[in-house]
Amino acid sequence: MNAPTPYPGGPEAGLSDNIHRIFHALGDPTRRALVERLSEAPVTVSQLAEPLAITLAAVVQHLQILEESGLVRTEKIGRVRTCRIEPKGFSVMEQWIRDRRTAWERRFDRLSDFLAETEETCSPKSDDQPGE
Amino acid sequence: METMQQPTVNHSTFTLERSVPASPDRVFSAFSDPAKKIRWHADGRNSEVLAFDVDFRVGGVDHYRYRMGPDSPLKGAILSNETHYLEIQPSRRIVIAYTMGIETNGENRPFSASLATFELLPSGAGTEILFTEQSAFFENSDGPEWRKQGWTSLLNKLAEALAE
After folding, report:
1. Is the pTM here over 0.95, yes or no?
2. Residue pLDDT tens, chain B, 164 long
3. CA B8 to each of CA B138, B140, B164: distance values in angstroms, whole numbers, following the listed order
4. Best residue in A5, A101, A115 to probe B by mutation, most B CBs within 10 Å?
């Protein structure tokens, strides 16, 4: 057997850095509030700051951390900076969480999928199911 | 005075509850029919199924062997599972005892032994599966090269987190 790659970081280098940034970004209640607001609709930075009892400068700092985590994107159009959710960042987190699920949970996912599939194509003969 | 001995076995218990979109009869057949069972029990995407022998009856023994795929931290390793059926109540309950092992130079070295219970409870048009697993992980039998992978500790951590 070949020497396996060391475990920390997993097969993809860089993934653990991304995960670190994502969980760091979401570890703060203000940043979670920003993400919750943005998940409803894209807004400008000043609109984002309005309902919060913090300065615009603080919001900009929080946004920078969220942007570095890949969960949020901002774009400057003219003089206005608009913020939105970046779905790709959430996919990274979803994948990480999926990978941490136990073998049995993954098995039950497959069982559930299998049962849903075979319901649709339910045939009276059950002895000729392809074993793919 | 005796020197302190490190325990060589870690124990964990965890439960899972799962709603599936099928009657208890159909869920049960996904366990009892080998052609159906291989579709979900084996992880065909991340491993190659080398053997999947099913003997579904009290006292029966299943043997599964997998070669772990490129995305696994145990890439290329051969994992084996020996499952003993202890109790079967059609469409209601299945209790198994199983060992998992890794093959090194053709020799199977078990790294865990578990008792697992599946209870199938009718729930609306579907079934609620209650799963309980009680496991012993053998610290001394999992080989230094794959112990590094942290696989066992990862499983234990997950099991602990799920048991909370």
Report:
1. no
2. 566 777 788 888 889 898 998 999 999 999 999 999 999 988 878 889 999 999 999 999 999 999 988 877 677 889 999 999 999 999 999 999 999 998 877 788 888 999 999 999 999 989 999 999 998 988 644 444 444 444 444 444 444 444 44
3. 6, 6, 23
4. A115
- CA gap B101, B91 in Å, rounded: 29
Instruction: For residue A104, give the nearest of B35, B73, B131 by CB distance.
Output: B131
Q: Do A114 and B74 touch (CB under 8 A)?
A: no
Question: What is the count of residue pairs from A and B with beta carbons less than 8 Å apart?
Answer: 88
- The CATH H-level (homologous superfamily) assignment of domain B11-163 is START domain (3.30.530.20)
Give this complex's ipTM: 0.73
The amino acid occupying position B125 is A
Does residue B122 contact residue B26 with C-beta atoms inside 8 Å? no
User: What CA–CA distance (Å, rounded) separates A85 from A67?
Assistant: 9
Given CB atoms, is B115 within the 8 Å cutoff of chain A? Answer: no
Query: Does A129 touch chain B if contact means CB atoms closer than 8 Å?
Result: yes
Best CA proximity match to B57, nearest among B31, B25, B18: B31
Domains delineated in chain A:
9-116 (1.10.10.10)
| Amino acid at site B88 | I
